[in-house]
Amino acid sequence: MKPADWLILQKKVRFGDCDSAGVIHFHNLLKWSHEAWEESIEIYGIPSQDIFPDFSIRKSQIIFPIVNCEANFLAPIKIGDLLKVKIVPHKINTHLFQVNSFFIKNGNKVAEGKIIHCSLDIDSRDKIELPDQLERWIEASNVSTNLKEC
Fold it and tell me: Whose C-alpha in 47, 102, 105, 132 is 20 to 30 A from the C-alpha of 13?
C-alpha cells in the first residue's frame, strides 16, 4: 500500500455542509479534518475501536482529546465542490501528535485544518505515550517526506 492510499482522501461538499451564503459552515472544516484522519487510520489498517474508546467493551484504555485546533480558509468552498484532503500527521512529543489537513480544489489549496491531540489514560487522565500502532501510522505517513529531506 502506498502512503497516498491513506493520506489523500476525497470529500464532496453537500448542501447540508453549507450556510445561507452557499459556502461551507466554518465548523465543518474541523469536522472534516477529524473525519479524514479517522478514515486514514482505518485505510492504513488500524481498527477505529483500537484508537477511539468504546465504553461498552472498554477495549481502548487511551483517549485522545483535542487540545488545540484551528482552521484557515483561503478560498470559498461551495456546494458540489470535490476536494482532495491531504493528511499530514506528525508526532510532537511522547504524548502529543498533530494532524494537518490540506483541502485542495482544482489543484489549489482552499483551506487547512490543524488538530493537536493528547494521549491520556482513560481512567487517571494522566498523559501517556502514544500507542505503537498510532506511532507506526505517523511514521509511515512521513516516510516520503523524510526521504525527500535526505
Answer: 47
Q: Which of 146, 133, 111 is nearest to 46 (CA)?
A: 133
**Taking a C-beta distance cutoff of 8 angstroms, is the pair 110, 83 a contact?**
yes
Q: Which amino acid is at 19?
A: D
Domain total in the chain: 1
Residue 145 is predicted with a pLDDT of: 53
- CATH of residue 48: 3.10.129.10
Rounded to whole angstroms, how far apart are CA atoms 46 and 25? 30
Domain membership of residue 58 as a residue range: 3-145
Q: Is the pTM of this model over 0.85?
A: yes
Residue 19 annotated among the catalytic residues of the structure: yes
Catalytic residue among 5, 17, 19, 121: 19
Instruction: Tell me whether residue 150 is in a domain.
Output: no
